[in-house]
UniProtKB/TrEMBL annotation:
<dbReference type="InterPro" id="IPR014105">
    <property type="entry name" value="Carotenoid/retinoid_OxRdtase"/>
</dbReference>
<dbReference type="InterPro" id="IPR036188">
    <property type="entry name" value="FAD/NAD-bd_sf"/>
</dbReference>
<dbReference type="InterPro" id="IPR008150">
    <property type="entry name" value="Phytoene_DH_bac_CS"/>
</dbReference>
<dbReference type="GO" id="GO:0016491">
    <property type="term" value="F:oxidoreductase activity"/>
</dbReference>
<keyword id="KW-0125">Carotenoid biosynthesis</keyword>
<comment type="similarity">
    <text>Belongs to the carotenoid/retinoid oxidoreductase family. CrtN subfamily.</text>
</comment>
<protein>
    <submittedName>
        <fullName>Phytoene desaturase family protein</fullName>
        <ecNumber>1.-.-.-</ecNumber>
    </submittedName>
</protein>
<dbReference type="Pfam" id="PF01593">
    <property type="entry name" value="Amino_oxidase"/>
</dbReference>
<comment type="pathway">
    <text>Carotenoid biosynthesis.</text>
</comment>
<keyword id="KW-0560">Oxidoreductase</keyword>
<feature type="domain" description="Amine oxidase">
    <location>
        <begin position="13"/>
        <end position="489"/>
    </location>
</feature>
<dbReference type="InterPro" id="IPR002937">
    <property type="entry name" value="Amino_oxidase"/>
</dbReference>
Length: 497
């Protein structure tokens, strides 16, 4: 008889774990609390506008393709991508920088500042690329089952070679003299919810990956990827139960026995938890299971550190602004101060923000002649700051006015036909994200690699974790990897039974 696996959550981590397991012959059912799959890779459709609600920047396209190839199909039959180049325009102090992953254009950008900046840039790339090779094989694509997997001479030596004790910004600025160019290579740690001024230097691999492997766009918008995973999973016979919040993970001593949904216990041979790890510990595991896992609610609430959140605007605008490419970033005049404000719970007066305009390359996301804009303002999570409705209502027009002046979006407020706001409280309510974070546990040194929650539970047999708050971390390709690692761990255990 097929072994039964229940997956809690249809985010990217849950979908990829489920797909891999279903294609290996398990009988997999995903239970998702919301009415659609994708988790934070979500879509909002209003009046002919289609907004991606969460991720928008596609990096490491091969990882997106992997779950399809591994399940025996051609990914091109499920979703298609195109390269975006220049992939981003960054505005710093009224200066606009189109950033390309084309070496000739990059050389013009860095040499245009000085030869020292260009030489420094090449040295920086070589340095971080070496660290990436080390991290990729020894930490990112490897899961940790036992302390011995990390605390051995070989791995500890490799960890030391990452030289990750300084901050990303500090490590990068050694190479590049020009401060504006330093900023161009540092804001990317915000993609995983941590400041470059405090995040470990290994996260300089994020700008490196953008520059060396390019940035891509999934035709129809990012949500097509969630739909593609859903399609492949159900084609293989997998079951998805939407609007089914799981209430508890059932255990008998140190063995998972199933899950509780709508008051009913459903037996499972194994459970993969994709719901946010800290939420799951607090709400789905009982105290004896928490003790076995050596984790307590106190630890979740007081000891663990959480990434930042964001305030998002989805704007259906009845015109097109030719000056906006797909991805644009406006950096605060005082970037460092902006990040300190976020980390200390102050709503930034002069924020950095990100603008996504897929209508620049995709006519399917808005009615003819209109555009579906998305604005992301990084803000504190709910542990640092609780934004009141009035604060949000007052803040939104400020952002709209800034967009008008920063990018010359004439009459933006007049052209808006649809306007929706998504706040840190919505992250908590919609996705059960602890403290309403957008990116899960903060990737500090003590919450990265071996020290991030593992994909296999410590002591409870048959329990696995996949998702942004677990190893290897946040960001779509990394969460895909997390789903695959959790599935691998499960297979190792269940195939030995
Ligand atoms: C605004 C934003 C922008 C981003 N931009 C990018 C980007 O450009 N590029 C990139 O690569 N990454 C980006 N990311 C990060 C990336 O989207 C996430 O890391 C990734 O989608 C997280 O997937 P996940 O599976 O870990 O979790 P989630 O997406 O949170 O999925 C968890 C699922 O579990 C469900 N769930 C929770 N509790 C229960 C329960 N009790 N029962 C049943 N179901 C439950 C939730 O509803 C949810 O569907 C962005 C994230 C955000 C929020």
């Amino acid at each position: 008889m097929k072994q039964k696996v229940s997956v809690i959550g249809a985010g990217v981590g849950g979908l990829t774990a489920a797909l891999k397991l279903q294609s290996q012959g398990y009988e997999v059912t995903i239970f998702e609390k919301n009415h659609q799959v994708g988790g934070k890779m979500n879509r909002l459709e209003v009046d002919g506008y289609r907004f991606d609600m969460g991720p928008t920047i596609v990096m490491m396209p091969d990882i997106y393709r992997k779950p399809f190839l591994e399940s025996g199909v051609d990914p091109d039959d499920y979703f298609t991508m195109q390269r975006v180049d220049p992939f981003m325009t960054v505005e710093i102090a009224k200066q606009r920088y189109p950033i390309s992953s084309d070496l000739v254009r990059l050389t013009q950008l860095f040499e245009g500042s000085s030869d020292a900046d260009m030489a420094g840039f090449l040295n920086y790339l070589a340095d971080i690329y070496q660290k990436y090779l080390n991290a990729k094989d020894n930490f990112i694509y490897k899961s940790f089952r036992t302390p011995r997997d990390f605390f051995n001479w070989k791995t500890l030596k490799q960890a030391l070679q990452l030289k990750t004790f300084s901050s990303s910004y500090h490590d990068m600025q050694k190479f590049i003299p020009n401060q504006q160019l330093q900023y161009l290579l540092s804001f990317q740690t915000l993609y995983i919810g941590i400041s470059p001024f405090s995040g470990p230097s290994i996260y300089n691999i994020i700008p490196m990956i953008e520059l060396l492997y390019g940035v891509w766009y999934i035709d129809g918008g990012m949500y097509q990827y969630a739909l593609a995973l859903q399609r492949r999973f159900t084609e293989l016979g997998g079951t998805i139960k939407l609007n089914q919040p799981v209430e508890a993970i059932e255990t008998n001593r140190s063995q998972v026995t199933g899950i509780k949904v709508a008051g009913q216990t459903l037996a499972s041979d194994a459970v993969v938890v994709n719901a946010d790890y800290p939420y799951a510990v607090e709400h789905l595991l009982d105290q004896s299971a928490q003790r076995l896992e050596r984790i307590s609610e106190k630890e979740v609430n007081q000891k663990m550190q959480y990434s930042m959140s964001c305030l998002l605007l989805y704007l259906g605008v009845d015109c097109q602004y030719e000056q906006l490419g797909v991805h644009t970033i406006k950096m605060a005049t005082d970037f460092k101060r902006n990040l300190t404000e976020i980390e200390t719970g102050v709503l930034p007066n002069d924020p950095s923000y990100y603008l996504y305009n897929p209508s620049a390359i995709d006519a399917s996301v808005a009615p003819a002649g209109a555009s579906a804009l998305y604005v992301l303002v990084p803000v504190a999570n709910l542990q640092q700051q609780q934004l009141s409705e009035t604060e949000v209502q007052d803040y939104v027009p400020k952002i709209l006015r800034r967009m008008e002046t920063d990018f010359g979006l004439t009459d933006l407020q007049k052209w808006i036909q649809v306007q929706r706001v998504f706040t840190p409280s919505d992250f908590k309510e919609f996705y059960n994200s602890k403290y309403g974070t957008a990116f899960g546990l903060k990737p500090t040194l003590l919450q990265s690699n071996y020290f991030r929650p593992h994909n296999k539970a410590r002591k409870i047999q048959g329990l696995y974790f996949a998702g942004a708050s677990t190893h290897p971390g946040a960001g779509v390709p990394i969460v895909v990897t997390s789903g695959e690692l959790a599935a691998q761990e499960l297979e190792k255990d269940l195939s030995n039974e």
